[in-house]
Amino acid sequence: MIDKIYSYIKDKRHTNIFFTVLGALIFAIIPLFTDVEASYLIYFLFLTFIHIVIAQGWNLIAGYAGQISLGQNAFFGLGAYTTALIWLHDITKTGYYFDPVVMILSGLAPVVLAIIIGIPLLSRLRGDYFAFGTLGIGQIIIVVFLKARAITGGADGLHIPSTVYESMMPYYYTGLLLALFAIAVVYFITRSRIGFALRAIREDEMSAASHGVFILKYKVLAFAVGAFLAGIAGSLYAYYLFHINPDSVLNMNWLFYPILMCVLGGTGTIMGPVIGAFFMTAIFSFGDVYFAQTHPIVSGVLIILVMKFMPTGIIGLKDRILSRGK
Amino acid sequence: MANQLLEVKSVDVFYGDVQALWEVSIQVEEGTIVALVGANGAGKTTLLKTISGINSAARGEILFSGEHLENLKPQNVVDRGIMHVPEGRRLFANLTVLENLRLGAYVPRARPFFAESLERSFTLFPVLQTRKNQKAGSLSGGEQQMLAIARALMGRPKLLMLDEPSLGLSPIFVKTIFELISTLNEQKATILLVEQNINQALKIAHQAYVLKTGKIVMSGAGNELLADEEIRKAYIGERVGRRQR
């Protein structure tokens, strides 16, 4: 029995699944041994889970399809605003607080935006130009949300009723579920024909097209899936903040941190963003506690060091150590 | 007239405001090798890209087995049975040899024959079988060109378009590649070949067209053009003594 399990794990195809399931089980029981309401660990993990979701979205479009998108903060923010607006305007007549309908709709609103913006951007712009084009999405959204005061509350933003808050428990478990969902979505997409097409596009777009890969369709698909993941992460974060404004949910940090996490962990690998998210969130939390005023400097130096000595990310370190022996 | 697989009729192509092809017409008969020759920048690659839908024609018609191609997207052209081996091979460098071959059979019409096509590729190029799990980028130049051709054959093309297959290869590989093209043709493949190695290309071509600054300036059977003094002087670089009058 144990032999069987061991050989199952040793099969390369199964190691990722095994570690994900193992990790999920460990994280699922952690709250049983901690004081959920007071523990910093729970908050730290909650934040990590949110970042995993956004980072996996970016991983799909940038790591697998090779299109550097700088629009994740726009999709995250739009997801958060969608949740708040649906709730405040009593639109779906469902429970609102941790309501799956609201969360899914908050993922779909960014998808619509990603498709509308993605088709013209992805059919005309490549490489750096696409990146700058997507950077514009966040800027446009910020201005629109600041100006449309009647709907979005301008700079002050929207307040959803915080009296519903009872416990950190649902945040933690929803975050864990979403992180697992994001990992699973990206894993199964990259294992399918779609993932195969995405990697071909990353390697050589023209060549992929001349082998029958419908470039625009797959790029927009990856862009939209990335937007969906950022959107539901934004929705969950909106439930945590209760106060949604451009400063909090459209902040550039929601763009750059997930990218850093992917790059640090290993872009274009399924576990890279997960490892990167834990690593970065740990650095930031650690810095926050021990170097309260100066922690961005410490974090910055650490990031530079990691990039200097581990250009392929933490995941790439394994291959480098293994190949050194040869 | 024999059975024309591909007919390009009076095609004009622009890059922005610059016209790259002027009323270009060519015909490719089924089962033949047709060569497009000419100097750098004559528009040979542009013509191939226009046929495969990467560039679009401003005017003119492209007929493949009687069907219009000029408004189709690349992925749809491939699905009609035209495989294009682009200049510089354009392999998926970080994917394995096997994955590259799988992408060759990506189109729906080729997918059901994957196993059969793969076996054929490995028979034609045994070296690819021994290297099937290596990254394509790690192969030698000659092996990469073999992979590029094998990948195109995986798509079960009715027409195979090769853009400069001998470019950057050692003389021995150049010979191998030209022999391979002849072999493929004997196995009934129709081939549209763009080459700078005009001597070799004209030797194996049944029909050839000479492009010059975007226009077809001459056409004829391969061996006829090979014997043509103008061609020898202009493109093969052979010194032809001026005849005394």
Molecular structure report:
The complex is a heterodimer of chains A (326) and B (245). By secondary structure, chain A is mainly alpha-helical. Chain A has 2 domains: 1-33, no CATH class; 44-249, no CATH class. Chain A has 16 helices and 2 strands. In chain A, strands 1-2 form a two-stranded antiparallel sheet. Chain A is globular. The two termini of chain A are 34 Å apart. With 245 residues, chain B is α/β, with parallel strands linked by helices. Chain B has helices at 44-51, 74-80, 97-104, 114-124, 126-130, 141-154, 171-186, 198-204, 222-227, 229-236; strands at residues 4-15, 18-29, 33-38, 59-64, 67-68, 82-85, 159-163, 190-195, 207-212, 215-221. In chain B, strands 6-7-8-3-9-10 form a 6-stranded mixed sheet, with helices on both faces. In chain B, strands 2-1-4-5 form a 4-stranded antiparallel sheet, covered by helices on one side. The longest helix of chain B is centred in the last third of the chain and has 16 residues, at 171-186. Chain B is globular, with a radius of gyration of 18 Å. The chains are: A mainly alpha (326), B alpha/beta (245). At the A-B interface, α9 and α10 of A face α2 and α3 of B.
Q: Averaged pLDDT of chain B, please?
A: 89
Percent strand of chain A equals: under 5%
Order of strands, main sheet of chain B, comes to: 6-7-8-3-9-10
Q: Work out the helicity level of chain B.
A: 25-40%
The computed structural class of chain B is alpha/beta
- Can you give the mean pLDDT of chain A? 89
- Separation of termini of chain A? 34 Å
Which keywords apply here?
A: 326 residues, two-stranded antiparallel sheet, 2 strands, B: 245 residues, alpha/beta, four-stranded antiparallel β-sheet
Blueprint of the fold:
The complex is a heterodimer of chains A (326) and B (245).
Chain A: H1 2-10, H2 12-33, H3 40-64, H4 72-88, H5 100-124, H6 127-147, H7 149-152, E1 158-159, H8 169-191, H9 193-203, H10 205-209, H11 215-241, E2 243-244, H12 246-249, H13 253-265, H14 272-290, H15 295-309, H16 313-324
Antiparallel strand pairs in A: 1-2
Helix pairs in contact in A: 2-8, 3-8, 3-11, 3-13, 3-14, 4-5, 4-6, 4-11, 4-13, 5-6, 5-11, 8-9, 8-11, 9-11, 13-14, 13-16, 14-15
Chain B: E1 4-15, E2 18-29, E3 33-38, H1 44-51, E4 59-64, E5 67-68, H2 74-80, E6 82-85, H3 97-104, H4 114-124, H5 126-130, H6 141-154, E7 159-163, H7 171-186, E8 190-195, H8 198-204, E9 207-212, E10 215-221, H9 222-227, H10 229-236
Parallel strand pairs in B: 3-8, 3-9, 6-7, 7-8
Antiparallel strand pairs in B: 1-2, 1-4, 4-5, 9-10
